[in-house]
């Protein structure tokens, strides 16, 4: 009963809990940056794309599309890392099932990265060709 009462007393939005969630999520991003080379490569490419988008005067709608695909690649990379770590927690030896899980999660990142690269080429190639 007591726990129910205290639960009911919670505000609709708790700013301190929101702040904590933000800090925890940021820690996840920073840890992945420190430990995952692929994540660092994708962030580096993100910076290149953002600079190129400004230099080549990409339209707002195209920038929005780029933001969605870049966010998708980075988010999938984070989920892939979480899956890898979960498998490592539960499987310490070589296991075909662990291999399938990790390879499939990596495949998800790969598929979306190819789609992002195609979107990038569709947006940037005409602009780059127009320079010559
Ligand atoms: N326990 C395991 N059993 C079988 N194969 C595994 C196992 N762990 C990893 N592998 C294989 O090795 C590949 C690389 O796994 P690993 O966990 O090293 O990922 P990674 O992409 O190199 O990331 P990280 O360097 O962060 O660990 C996997 O995609 C999978 O094919």
Automatic annotation (TrEMBL):
<keyword id="KW-0067">ATP-binding</keyword>
<dbReference type="GO" id="GO:0005524">
    <property type="term" value="F:ATP binding"/>
</dbReference>
<keyword id="KW-1003">Cell membrane</keyword>
<keyword id="KW-0594">Phospholipid biosynthesis</keyword>
<keyword id="KW-0460">Magnesium</keyword>
<dbReference type="GO" id="GO:0008654">
    <property type="term" value="P:phospholipid biosynthetic process"/>
</dbReference>
<dbReference type="InterPro" id="IPR036945">
    <property type="entry name" value="DAGK_sf"/>
</dbReference>
<feature type="active site" description="Proton acceptor">
    <location>
        <position position="77"/>
    </location>
</feature>
<keyword id="KW-0444">Lipid biosynthesis</keyword>
<dbReference type="InterPro" id="IPR000829">
    <property type="entry name" value="DAGK"/>
</dbReference>
<dbReference type="InterPro" id="IPR033717">
    <property type="entry name" value="UDPK"/>
</dbReference>
<keyword id="KW-0479">Metal-binding</keyword>
<feature type="transmembrane region" description="Helical">
    <location>
        <begin position="41"/>
        <end position="58"/>
    </location>
</feature>
<feature type="binding site">
    <location>
        <position position="84"/>
    </location>
    <ligand>
        <name>ATP</name>
    </ligand>
</feature>
<feature type="binding site">
    <location>
        <position position="36"/>
    </location>
    <ligand>
        <name>a divalent metal cation</name>
    </ligand>
</feature>
<dbReference type="GO" id="GO:0016301">
    <property type="term" value="F:kinase activity"/>
</dbReference>
<dbReference type="Pfam" id="PF01219">
    <property type="entry name" value="DAGK_prokar"/>
</dbReference>
<keyword id="KW-0812">Transmembrane</keyword>
<feature type="binding site">
    <location>
        <begin position="102"/>
        <end position="103"/>
    </location>
    <ligand>
        <name>ATP</name>
    </ligand>
</feature>
<keyword id="KW-0808">Transferase</keyword>
<feature type="transmembrane region" description="Helical">
    <location>
        <begin position="104"/>
        <end position="125"/>
    </location>
</feature>
<feature type="binding site">
    <location>
        <position position="36"/>
    </location>
    <ligand>
        <name>ATP</name>
    </ligand>
</feature>
<keyword id="KW-0418">Kinase</keyword>
<keyword id="KW-0472">Membrane</keyword>
<feature type="binding site">
    <location>
        <position position="17"/>
    </location>
    <ligand>
        <name>substrate</name>
    </ligand>
</feature>
<dbReference type="GO" id="GO:0005886">
    <property type="term" value="C:plasma membrane"/>
</dbReference>
<feature type="binding site">
    <location>
        <position position="77"/>
    </location>
    <ligand>
        <name>substrate</name>
    </ligand>
</feature>
<keyword id="KW-1208">Phospholipid metabolism</keyword>
<comment type="similarity">
    <text>Belongs to the bacterial diacylglycerol kinase family.</text>
</comment>
<keyword id="KW-1133">Transmembrane helix</keyword>
<dbReference type="GO" id="GO:0046872">
    <property type="term" value="F:metal ion binding"/>
</dbReference>
<feature type="binding site">
    <location>
        <position position="84"/>
    </location>
    <ligand>
        <name>a divalent metal cation</name>
    </ligand>
</feature>
<keyword id="KW-0443">Lipid metabolism</keyword>
<feature type="binding site">
    <location>
        <position position="17"/>
    </location>
    <ligand>
        <name>ATP</name>
    </ligand>
</feature>
<keyword id="KW-0547">Nucleotide-binding</keyword>
<protein>
    <submittedName>
        <fullName>Undecaprenol kinase</fullName>
    </submittedName>
</protein>
<feature type="binding site">
    <location>
        <position position="24"/>
    </location>
    <ligand>
        <name>ATP</name>
    </ligand>
</feature>
<feature type="transmembrane region" description="Helical">
    <location>
        <begin position="64"/>
        <end position="83"/>
    </location>
</feature>
């Amino acid at each position: 009963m007591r726990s129910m009462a205290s639960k009911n007393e919670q505000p609709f939005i708790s700013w301190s809990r929101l702040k904590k969630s933000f800090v925890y999520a940021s820690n996840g991003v920073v840890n992945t940056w420190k430990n995952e080379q692929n994540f660092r490569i994708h962030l580096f490419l993100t910076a290149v794309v953002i600079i190129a988008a400004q230099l080549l005067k990409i339209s707002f709608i195209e920038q929005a599309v780029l933001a969605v695909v870049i966010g998708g690649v980075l988010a999938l990379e984070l989920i892939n890392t979480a899956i890898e770590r979960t498998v490592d927690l539960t499987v310490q030896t070589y296991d075909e099932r662990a291999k399938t899980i990790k390879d499939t999660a990596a495949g998800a990142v790969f598929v979306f990265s190819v789609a992002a690269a195609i979107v990038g080429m569709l947006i940037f190639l005409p602009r780059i060709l127009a320079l010559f």
